[in-house]
Amino acid sequence: MEQIISGVVLGCSYALVGVGLSMIWGILKMININHGELYMSGAYFMWVSFTMGMPLVVAAIIGLVCTLLLSALIQTATIRPLFKKPGWNSSPFILTMALSILMQNVALRVFGEKFQNIPYFDDGIYKIFGNINISGQRIYIVVVTVLVVALLMVIIRFTRLGRAIRATAQERDAARLMGVNTARIYLVTYVISGVLAAIAGILLAPIYSVNPWMGSAVQIKGLVVCVLAGLGSIEGAIGAGIILGLAESLSVTFIDSTWKDIVSYLILVVILWVKPNGLFMKKGEA
Amino acid sequence: MREYFRNRKAVGIAAVVFFVALITVIPAFTQEPYTILILTMCMLWAGVASSWNLIAGYAGIFTLGHQALFGLGAYVSSIFAMKLGITPWVSIFIGALFAAVIGALISVPSLKLRLMPYIAIATLGLGEIIRIVVLNTVDLTKGAAGLWGIPPFTPIGDISFDGVSRIPSYYLMLVMFLATIAITAKIVRSPIGKSLSAIKDSQDAAESLGVNVRFNKVVVFMIGSFFAGLFGGFYAHTLLILTPNAVMGGQLGLQIIAYGLVGGMGTIAGPVIGGFVITIGMELLRFMEDYRLIVYALIIILVVIFMRGGIWGTVKPLLDKLWKKN
Amino acid sequence: MLKVESINSFYGDVQILFDLSLEVNKNEIVTLLGSNGMGKTTAIKSIFNILPIRSGSITFDGIRLDKKKPHELALLGITLVPEGRKLFPAMSVKDNLLLGAFSIKEKKQIEKNLEWVLGLFPRLKERARQIAGTLSGGEQQMCAIARGLMIRPKFIVFDEPSLGLAPIIVDQIFQTMKTIIKENDSTVLLIEQNVHLALEVSDRGYVLENGHIAMSGPAQELLESEEIQKAYLGL
Q1: pLDDT at residue number A283
Q2: Cβ distance of B109 and A227 shorter than 8 Å
């Protein structure tokens, strides 16, 4: 039972990262390899603010805002120029790859390789479902994830912006004809994704510590989630994230934990073999 | 003489001959082990980049698992040499064959999947699975601690490969490098090469023209993997130390792609240029210490944004224009 | 209203349009004819600046269209009902229509337009919540037209509205088009392969051949001309 809770908590972070990646994939039609580093940015910006004396909540918000600005900068300075010129469509791939290396090493240079600690948001331990212990931090993770994801769904489904985003993903030229500034939509989408990743980074920082490589593992899991969910399916990414988290967590009961990482890769390969379109693809989805 | 220069093909051949002659005689000009080693590695990575380019540039299959084959070649060759006492001259081929077989396995996702992102992720996943397996079979590979004490190449007559002089291994690599490039060029110009171009352009069209797409894909993977594994074997018996992360990790995977993309995909010259430029560049940047990787990343970003088609892809059209003027 | 003056358009190095000029005056219905590959789609893309022109000018009520970004055209009251509909396949009919009105800021105005449009197309009103990708061909075309009308446009371009539809549906659609134009006081540029239908409903026409205008004139004249009858009507 403990494992299930761990799985769900883990799944929440995978879901947040996966949803962001899925959005970028579905709308900008590219794979963002430095997504893990946006996750890392959120955590580091928060850590810096915290060590400068800010209260935890304020530090978290600063972490979010800084990552928001950073995402905007990255999209405007590097990704947008790439799309202006025609060319081989793997270029965004290697661009974000290089950005990933860049960000990791900048973090390494600025902060060093030491694993930094952040205190839990809530030190308490609570009882749920009778007598199972769960730390306050974990409750935070689940609650915040649910709220954020719900908010995102509302925006996508019911607001003008959400319609514009969906239209850009499904038929870009037609969207432009209706007056949608698709260049701006790309920026907004990228920034939203970055913020989602930052939220995940901030939520998990107290548990896993802040270090320059914290994004790498998350990146791969995020990709697995995207594939599991199906190209560009945002709701699918949520479900897929939870499933992946559960799978990884439960697998520890069967296999040695050193082999744990292999679980996600095996799931990935199997899904691509059996159902390449993902588990949650709906008809007509872009 | 002017007439001769008008013939672009002739000039191209002359440039190649010049390059080959240059790298053949360079050891006469500098005996410094460091320089020789760097140049050896340049050729090594250029060769690996070429083998990746065969799959990704010519057949159009963007594989992210190529590093696993390099590392497998390294490990398998080492293990056969250490545990069974087989001479490295033979074991590197065993390693290469092993890599070729595994390469056939890695080709499988590309047989079914069409979209580049899926193929990239699938091959990445498979590559990682291989790495984790190697990492965890500690009895054989010593895992994360690293495999030490790999036997170097056994001497040929008076020539010893024990590392005291770097020159013998330089020439060994020279032979391997030139052979690989020559074979790759031959393949590209052969019927198989034409089939690969067709597949890259449009798989359906190729199929309707009678090209056995699946067979060709598997074959190109096996050939590319063979070479990668072979170079891996060389790496093992020259540097004498292996760790899973160094020879088959994600960083290496990205590096291999970088060679191809910076140099120019889908050409023979491209990966070679990429291999040399990046390897030498990285060494020149060594004085920057901590900033080295940062600068490396920035350069890649700039090249990707401003130089589509890599260095060769940008330079070649300019050269063509120059020729038209004449 | 719309003045296209000597435009030249290229796909890469290949020239498609050669000094193309045409005019559409207020409240006119002008048709652009020509078989496939003659440059009709390129002309549309050029007008909407999805494919930038190399030379010449495109003016709309004095405003230079070729200097504007594609997403700015809706603000001028120009609408395109694209070839192949280009609906947003995973969105509902209603959402598609709401997107049509994306350039309008006042909610009240959008609601009014939505009511008007749904009044014109009762079938769509029934299917407002249905996912656009699951509509029939004719319904999709109606939806595409409705979507284009959501801004109550001054100028509408219809790109091959009859393509892939059964004759009965096509008739319906052309009837609806005529009604809309009267009710809405619009000007229309019609791109069509169905020469007969197009010329019947239009005031004037142009014939596009290999990237330049081969013939032009009042629709009735064109319909009766020998060349048209031979080339396009198989007589």
Answers
A1: 41
A2: no
